[in-house]
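During the no-cost extension, the postdoctoral fellow (Dr. R.K.) reprocessed legacy sequence entries with the updated structure-token encoder. One reprocessed record is reproduced below for audit purposes.
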Amino acid sequence: MNQIDPVQLMLDVIKENSPNSAWVGSPLESFRSVANTNRGDIGEEFVARYLKFLELDVVKAPSRNREWDVEILGQKLEVKTASQDSSGYFQFNHIRLDRKYGYLLCLAVRPSELLFGLWSKGEVAEGIAGTLVRMAEGQSITFKLTKNPVQLEPVQNLANALRKRLG
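Re-encoded structure tokens follow.
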């Protein structure tokens, strides 16, 4: 009777039915294995540490229940973090317009690059940042914003963009 390792067989079938991913072997591959809720925490912490390193005044919200995530140069910002999907776009989820923040900062994680977008809350509400789509049919509280990487900037420009917009 033939022997077969069922786990190895399953791994073979998974590999055969999984599209090639740009994430495999990339510098930021580990970000894809993080749960979605933790991705937001990672994004907020990255923004705070990165900007502090670049000598910007940054204060993180004292708790997750605040209506904003970070305060930069005296302005309250909501930070949303997303990884690049298989089509090459980013889905920034759970954007709320009923919260008290002045700017939306979207941090986009690619396999070996970080990008960002920065818009005032008014620009988000008016569709200047892009089209907001309801997260669930029939509700109008949380939205998602889809961005093409060409619509975003390299994270190396973030400090200057913040100084220009907020300073």
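The chain has four helices and nine strands. The CA atoms of residues 1 and 9 lie 17 Å apart. The remaining legacy entries will be reprocessed before the final report is submitted.
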